[in-house]
Amino acid sequence: MATDPRFFASAGPQRLADLAAAAGGQAAGDPERRFTGVAPLQAAGPDDVSFLDNRKYLPALKATRAGAVVLAPAMAAQVPPGTIAIVAPAPYLGFARVATLFHPAPRPVPGRHPTAVVADDAVLGEGCEIGPYAVVGAGARLGRGCILHPHAVVGPGVELGEDCRLHAHSSISHAVAGRGVVLHPGARIGQEGFGFAPTADGRFETMPQLGRVLLGDNVEVGANACVDRGSQGDTVIGPGSRLDNLVQIGHNVTTGRGCIIVALAGISGSTTLGDYVQLAAQAGIAGHLEIGSGARIGGQAGVMENVPAKTDVIGSPAWPVREFWRAIARLRKLGAPPGKPAGGPDGKDEGKAG
Fold first, then answer.
1. Distance (Å, rounded) from C-alpha 191 to C-alpha 30?
2. What's this model's pTM, rounded to 2 decimal places?
3. Which residues pair with 35 in a beta bridge?
4. Which of 164, 191, 200, 225 has the highest count of CB atoms within 10 angstroms of its CB?
5. Mean pLDDT for all residues in the chain
6. CA nearest 38: which of 80, 106, 90, 97?
7. Which domains are present in the chain?
């Protein structure tokens, strides 16, 4: 089905010319033709725009009733009669920009809800929206156009750049954030890191956590994800990085630009990630390590040593991908019953690496 108007306000209709420009592509059709929204290939109608970025969905393309489809040049000939091909070099990215034309991020509604609590010396930039029961602590500074949804909390002294959005029940303390930062519901930024000193009689005394969290421009932190503040120095999340839901970032971690940390992944204290590192779901990284720029960590991997730049690792303990699959292939051969071929259900050696 198309987007539900109860939840997603539409900025349509949009002209074909504007859609093609947004997608970074070209379209052979009436540039003034209007479209009202976006929808999947299977559900789209003549007034909808859809997309194709995977050949396995070619049957759905051939059967679609969509008015226009964003796709790669190599697939343009497969578009059925009556559907306009918006040919773009990066169809998925192009469609994301088309969808944003129809459904842009909500703009702030300037003002302060009467139930919000804002410290007398807090500074609110022009056009901020402070929602019900939101809290802005003493000395905090919010840039222009920030949105605080219900029950969001900005701690004392925190600084937010312009156009930040804090969704319901998110909180940020001991932090400085750049522009365009988004905290999804329940995200926690700047809480005390997990640091303590054991005593001779078996107790634990908390090590004061005296650092901050620095969030670069356009960082997004998923629902119920946590970023601990530094213990002595700072925890740093580089510009453009994305943290998925339920991610844990320990104290003094530093990430470079554009890192992707997927759900349930965790990074222990004082580990450094270079630029554009990717951690798949449930991956774990031990503390005080260095993960080089462009490295990719597979799902459920357990990283216990440094990973060089542009290296793919998987497994626990994590190995380079080719070594891991060679080892799995050997284990399957060792474990196969006599007379039965090793490998997957069809007898093929799934683990063989080039």
1. 55
2. 0.91
3. 14
4. 164
5. 94
6. 97
7. 14-102 (3.40.1390.10)
